[in-house]
């Protein structure tokens, strides 16, 4: 018998660590400023703000339209997915979420389960080189249906990581540039951290596949990413974990998407928890969304079955919202469908 998402959550509460509470709605309130842990930095309010700003948006119902099936198919970089959803990269699993899985085990389950569910996972990175090696192997086993996400290391370290990435044959690669604010990246030798446009140009060329820059929160940042040759950006504040007092991603998405134009894909994460939230993000200009913490809960609570249950729930919610708002394909979701 297939697990329900409610069963996945209940099971996750029996094996999560001390920080994450596997809440019925992952809104950042129970974990607030618990870092290490899944919470946000400083006052802990950015994760809460991310969630709440999506809830402040309303969808405009309109059922005076043709009655036909909804198509949620999403195409990007030569690949077709069932839904416009990615699992976001998460790392340091034991530190943040409990001892049940390490990074290697988590990425292995997530990549495979997401591919089987018709979507794809971004995999995390860490100071342990085995994390990227295992992630690359997991992506390779699923014919490249995953996006390895590399921290903003120095160029020599990046070249070593890209060698692993190329062996896996992923359809894209990414860097979470906002990870420059993570404590473990500071004071390293050689240094890791923020990158100039010229440095990013070299990194994009080294990747050899469409490159995604994650952690863009301003129009200026989006334009610099475009100048560097990024194929896509992720509007993201790293779940509030790298800088306190940031705006929510929902507050900046529309202006960033407008500035990015049609020649660079725009993804978004941060507090997106339902298919209705996904619809809102697409209406504001995103091409797809990333969801992080709830996929951790799904893996801890049910492994591959948990990932399938949560993805199915998102798909049902998105399909229903599209039908009730008169959008029968992703291209038909327009700005006037949210307020």
TrEMBL record:
Cofactors (names): FMN
Residues engaged in binding FMN: 214, 236, 269-273, 292-293
Catalytic activity line of the entry: (S)-lactate + O2 = pyruvate + H2O2
Claim: Oxidoreductase is one of the keywords in the record: yes
List of catalytic residues: 238
Ranges for domain FMN hydroxy acid dehydrogenase: 1-339
Binding annotation for glyoxylate: 238, 241
InterPro entries, per database record: Aldolase_TIM (IPR013785), Alpha-hydoxy_acid_DH_FMN (IPR012133), FMN-dep_DH (IPR000262), FMN_HAD (IPR037396)
Keywords annotated in UniProt: Flavoprotein, FMN, Oxidoreductase
Statement: the UniProt record of this protein carries the keyword Nucleotidyltransferase: no
Alphabetical list of CDD domains matching this protein: alpha_hydroxyacid_oxid_FMN
Coiled coil segments of this chain: none
One GO molecular-function entry: FMN binding
Gene3D superfamilies xref list: Aldolase class I
Family: Belongs to the FMN-dependent alpha-hydroxy acid dehydrogenase family.
Protein name, per record: L-lactate oxidase
Lineage: Bacteria, Bacillati, Bacillota, Clostridia, Lachnospirales
């Amino acid at each position: 018998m297939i697990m329900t998402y409610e069963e996945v959550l209940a099971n996750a509460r029996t094996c999560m660590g001390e920080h994450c509470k596997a809440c019925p709605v992952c809104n950042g309130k129970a974990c607030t400023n618990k870092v290490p842990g899944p919470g946000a930095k400083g006052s802990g309010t950015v994760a809460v703000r991310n969630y709440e700003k999506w809830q402040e948006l309303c969808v405009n119902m309109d059922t005076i339209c043709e009655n036909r099936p909804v198509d949620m198919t999403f195409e990007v970089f030569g690949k077709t997915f069932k839904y416009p959803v990615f699992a976001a990269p998460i790392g340091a699993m034991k530190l943040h979420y409990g001892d049940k899985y390490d990074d290697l085990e988590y990425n292995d389950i997530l990549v495979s389960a997401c591919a089987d569910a018709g979507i794809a996972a971004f995999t995390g990175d860490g100071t342990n080189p085995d994390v990227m090696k295992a992630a690359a192997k997991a992506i390779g086993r699923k014919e490249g249906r995953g996006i390895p996400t590399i921290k903003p290391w120095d160029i020599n370290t990046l070249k070593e990581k890209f060698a692993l990435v190329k062996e896996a044959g992923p359809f894209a690669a990414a860097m979470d540039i906002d990870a420059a604010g993570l404590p473990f990246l500071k004071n390293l030798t050689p240094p890791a951290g923020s990158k100039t446009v010229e440095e990013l140009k070299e990194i994009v060329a080294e990747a050899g596949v469409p490159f995604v820059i994650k952690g863009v929160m301003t129009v200026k940042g989006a334009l610099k990413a475009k100048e560097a040759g990024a194929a896509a950006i992720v509007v993201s504040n790293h779940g509030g974990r790298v800088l306190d007092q940031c705006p929510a991603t929902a507050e900046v998405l529309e202006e960033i998407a407008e500035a990015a134009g049609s020649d660079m894909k725009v993804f978004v994460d941060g507090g997106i928890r339902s298919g209705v939230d996904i619809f809102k993000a697409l209406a504001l200009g995103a091409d797809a969304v990333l969801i992080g913490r709830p996929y951790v809960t799904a893996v801890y609570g049910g492994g591959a079955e948990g990932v399938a249950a949560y993805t199915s729930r998102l798909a049902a919610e998105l399909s229903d919202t599209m039908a009730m708002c008169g959008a029968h394909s992703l291209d038909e979701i327009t700005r006037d469908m949210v307020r």
